[in-house]
Each structure stands twice: as C-alpha cells, then as structure tokens.
Amino acid sequence: MQSVEWERSREELEAVLAGTLPGAKEIDPAECSAGRFLLAYSDGRQIPAGAVAAIPLDWALASGFQRMVWKELAKVPFGETITYGELAARCGRGEAARAVGAALARNPWPVIVPCHRVVGAGGRMVGFGKGIAAKRTLLAFEKRCLDEAAGCIKKRQNG
Prior knowledge:
Structural class: mainly alpha
Distance between the termini: 49 Å
CATH architecture: Orthogonal Bundle
Strand order of the largest sheet: 1-2
C-alpha cells in the first residue's frame, strides 16, 4: 500500500510513520506514477484533473461511498475549490455534506486526491487532516501557480 504523508520535519515524519505505518519504506518519487504526480505538483505544474485516473491507486481501500467521493473529488481542477455540499450533490447525495467530510478524513492520498480543495459553505476554511494552515498554504500555492502561468501567457501575447 502507498500513502502520501508529510510532517514539518523528517524526524516528525519518521515518528508518525513508526506509529501509524510500522515498516513503511520511503520510495524514490520518480520511480512511481504517484511520486511523479507529486513532483510535478510541487513544481507548480497544473496537472489535469483526469491525470489521477492514470495513477494505480488502490480504490479498494475505500467503502463504496468513500470511493465515489474520492473519485469525484479527483476531478476538481488545480486551483479550484468545491464545497462539501457541492461534492455531496455530485455524488448524488446532496444532503450528505458531513458524510463527505468523513470520507475525506480517511483519504490516504492527500494532494493526489485533493481534499484540500474542499471548503465549507461560503468558502470557509474548515476540515483538513494536516490543519487549516496547510490547507491555506496548498490553495495559495495553486493560486500563485495559476497567476504566474496567466502572467506568462499575457506576456507572450503582448510580445
């Protein structure tokens, strides 16, 4: 099984892994599709939402509803957000915003399945396993990348 894990320092990461995933091994990110996805993301490249489908994630780790939520969430584009209620509606369960939150809390592939892009009603920053500050950082990173890309396109168009 592969998962996406991060902490503030290598020591913290190793301590968390020892407690939650004993025997976990670090892999070279360039040697697997999920790692290459994360490297591209960290370089600020806008990865098409459909690219997640090409990563061999073990969807069997999820219940039917979780799988539906995670797969629908994987379609939310880089730099965009969706509310818990909107995601529930896309899954055919418009009144299940809390259940969506519970499904996202079990997401083993944050960033790849971008749970940081799910916000509360009215755009409120709520609910993210690594904390609201990390959620804001990821969303700000994506916005900055989009702004920079738009600036480059504008410069090319204006000569």
